[in-house]
Please model this.
Amino acid sequence: MDSEIPFIRPDFPPTPEFAEDYARILASNRYTNFGPFEEQFAERIGSYLGEGLVATTFANATLGLMAALEVVLGRGDGTQGVLVPSFTFAAGPASLEWLGYVPVFIDIEPDGLQPNVSSAQAALDAQGGSIAGVLLCNSFGIGNPQIDAWIAWAQEHHLPVVLDSAAGFGSRYADGTPVGRAGIAEVFSFHATKPFAIGEGGAVVTHDPEIAQRLKSFQNFGFSSAGTAESLGLNAKLPEFSAAIGLRQFSRFDELLEQRRTVIAAYMDALTPLGCHFPSNIETSSGCFASVSLPPAVSRKDVLAALHSHGIGARSYYSPAVHRHPHFASVAQVVPLPYTEAAEESMLSLPIHADMDPKDLGRIIDVVSASLA
Ligand SMILES: *Cc1c(COP(=O)(O)O)cnc(C)c1O
Model:
């Protein structure tokens, strides 16, 4: 029997590096509440992404989404809507609901996975003045090739944009600029399953220092510098141990990104000629996993079964899409979602590890190729 190939295998710093940080944290007697590791990590995130971007760390991206939406849109009254694709992870629509907004699901591109502007326009036409903003997603962390058109459209309609770029730390937009620069704020996850992994953690980045200040207050009980609550907040702080891992991750992240992109290129070279379709711009993404749309006549169930029978951890993200999850099924559907529903059926997600053995990669490609034949 071949050895198992897990879907995700995160790259964490070697034990001696973490042991050194652990000892320093114990000696400093500061474990959380914006200690030196957290402060450096936040600075490093901002400077990695580019000049003028301020990063605020979070205990996870879901709390980051809630904070960003609260700061940018304020709280909803339970009837206002926010446009959000259904082809995403449930945390985005759930954050909207926590904040008192109704997720108004929009479709994705006919030939891609990214949210579609025409669908947003149709939803806006249908809902008119009750739409408060847009929670855009960089699907699978891939920089949306239409990002500038999206932002221009939203500006034209006076809709603030927050981006869920959870898996996209290290990804680039089509013009080469880093994911993180768009909209009013972009939200990243450092969950163990993401390319920049620290276990649990996240960050919200923005060009606006005042928004950054309010994000920081939100994650610290709504406290001002006087230590009294000025607004409604939560505890969403990133502990020092997690920040220390994050700082260590930077020392090898670019190299690991290159390795992940080599795996993407190998999948594309082998599977595109067989009729598989890769999302555009995936080659400059962080490579969380390789999402590929199978040719129309192929049964994804069969391909997945073949992969699993060979011990290969493949998945079918996002199936079902969020509008078909039991909790969200009662949310009124404002526009049809035909491309989302087609993608649900055809998308296959293949593993990417930075240190993937070429033999393992060959095995995955062989199994997929054989089940397409
Ligand atoms: C992973 C992910 C999240 C959630 O991130 P956490 O850090 O686990 O809260 C949200 N949105 C998308 C699109 C994701 O992929």
Q: What stands out?
A: The two ends are 23 Å apart (CA to CA).
